[in-house]
Design brief:
The complex is a heterodimer of chains A (129) and B (362).
Chain A lengths: L8 E2 L4 E7 L2 E6 L1 H7 L2 E5 L6 E2 L4 E7 L3 E5 L4 E6 L2 H4 L3 H4 L8 E5 L11 H10 L1
Antiparallel strand pairs in A: 1-2, 2-3, 3-9, 4-6, 5-8, 6-7, 8-9
Chain B lengths: L7 H6 L3 E5 L2 E6 L3 H10 L2 E4 L4 E6 L3 H8 L13 E7 L5 E9 L4 E5 L4 H10 L7 E4 L3 E7 L3 H5 L8 H6 L5 E4 L2 E4 L8 E7 H14 L2 E2 L2 H10 L36 H12 L5 E7 L10 E4 L2 E11 L4 E8 L6 E5 L2 E8 L4 E2 L2 E2 L3
Parallel strand pairs in B: 3-13
Antiparallel strand pairs in B: 1-2, 3-9, 4-7, 4-8, 5-6, 6-7, 9-12, 10-11, 11-12, 14-17, 14-19, 15-16, 15-18, 16-17, 18-19, 20-21
Classes of the chains: A alpha+beta (129), B alpha+beta (362).
Amino acid sequence: MANIPENFYYASTHEWIRVDGNGIATVGITDHAQEALGDIVFIELPEPGAATEAKGEVAVVESVKAASDIYSPAAGEITEVNEALIENPQLVNSAPYEDGWIYRMTLNDENDLNGLLGAEAYADQCADD
Amino acid sequence: MGLRTVLYERHIAAGAKVVDFAGWDMPLHYGSQIGEHHLVRTDAGVFDVSHMTVVDVAGGDATGWLRHLLSNDVARLEAPGKALYSLLLNHGGGVVDDLIVYRTEAGYRLVTNCATRRKVLLWLARHSQGYLVQVDERPKLAMLAVHGPNSIALASEALPRDCVEAVGRLGNFESLEHDGWLIARTGYTGEKGIEVILPGDAAGELWDRLLAAGVKPAGLGARDTLRLEAGMNLYGQDMDENTSPYAANLGWTVSWRDEDREFIGREAVSQHRQQQQRGELPVLAGLVLEARGVLRGGQRVETDRGAGVITSGSFSPTLKQSIALARIPSGSASCQVELRGGMVPLKIVKPGFVRFGKRIFE
C-alpha cells in the first residue's frame, strides 16, 4: 500500500503539493506514482523564475519504463528546484515526499488548493487505478 | 489471474512487483530494476524464466528435421552437451521465433520464447509430417538463469554436489545432464552464468539454496536492460515474421556451411544475403544518446541516408546514458532523434554496448 501523508494536497495526475508557509509550497510526485513508474533515471526540472499554470506541464520524469509529464498542481512562480535530482533522480523513488521533492513555488492564490484532493480522496483514486 | 510458475509464491515473498507477461504473472522487479541490473553486472542474480517454452525432440529423423527447420545447422552440434542459437524462419525468410537448441542424450531440446508458444508449437507440428520425430513440450519443467561474475561460484554451493565440478568445466554454450536436470552455460545478459532446466518440483529448493548462497532475485525488467546492453535482440521487438535475419543483425545464425542443406526460408534469405552485401537492406544498429533523455522503442530516427526506427530503447544502468537498437538504412554515417522539440545527435555503433561489466564500443 502506497504511503499518502495526511497534510498534503494531491492532483489526480499524481503530484502532491504541501504548503510550507509564507505563500511557498513544495511539489513532488506521490509514492503511488513513483512505484508505477519504476526506477527513475532522468528528471527534466523547470527553470526557477518561470510562471506555471495550474495543470500546466512543468517537468518530465523519465523512468526505466516510460517518460511521464509532471503537471503543476497550482498556478504561481517556480522559486527553487531540487538540484540533487540531477545527480540522483532515484531520490524520487526512495523518498518521494522528502528528499525527492521536485520544485518549490509561490502560490498565486492559496484557495486554488481547495480544488485538489485530500489524502483520503486520493487514496480512493489510487485504489480504483 | 494469469499463469504462474512454480516459484510464484517465492517471488511474492521476495517482494516482487508482478506484471502480466504474455499471460503469465511474472516478477518485473523485487524493489529496484536498476539495482538488480547492477547486481547481475557485478555479483550474481537469479531469474525465473520458467515461462519459456521447452520442447524435446527425439526420433530417427530428429537431426534431419531440425536441419530443415532451423536457420543454423544442428549438424555442428557434434555431441550431446553442445548448444547453439538459431532462428525458425518462414518461407519468406522472416523470423518465426529465435531459440537455443541443446543437443541432449535423448536427442535435442529447444528453448523458445513464451509469447510465441502457441505459434511455435503449431509450426513444429505442421512441419513434422513425414519425419520420424517425436516432439514433446515439457510444461512441467522449470528454468532458472543464474548470471553475473560470481554466478558460478555461488551456484556451486546450491547445485547438486556431484555435478558441481563438471559445471565448473563447462565452456560457453556447453551443457550437461544430471538426474533430469540440464545445466548449460547459456544466457541473455552478456555476463557469464548458467541456465538450469529442472523438474518443476525441484525448482523451489534450488531457488532457496541459491538465495542462501547469496544469489539475489532479479526480475524481467533487469533482464531486458541487460540483454539490450549486451546487444541481444528481443523477439517481437527487434525482429518478427516480416524481418529478415539479415536486417536484424542475425545473418550469422544462418548457416551456409553445407551448401546442399534445404532449410525453410533458404531461397528468400539467400536473396536477402545478397541484398545485404549490396547495401540494399536496412541494418539493425546500436545507438547511443550522449545527451540526457531516454530513447524508446517505436521512436523515429533520421539518418543521412533516410529514416529509421528504434526497435528497443532504454536507459543503460551500466553506462548511465540511453542506448537503443534501431533499424536504419545501410551505410548511415549520422543519426538524429527528435527529443523535446529539437533534433539531438546519436552515435551509431555496432549492436553490443556492455560485455562482462565493461563498455565495449568506441
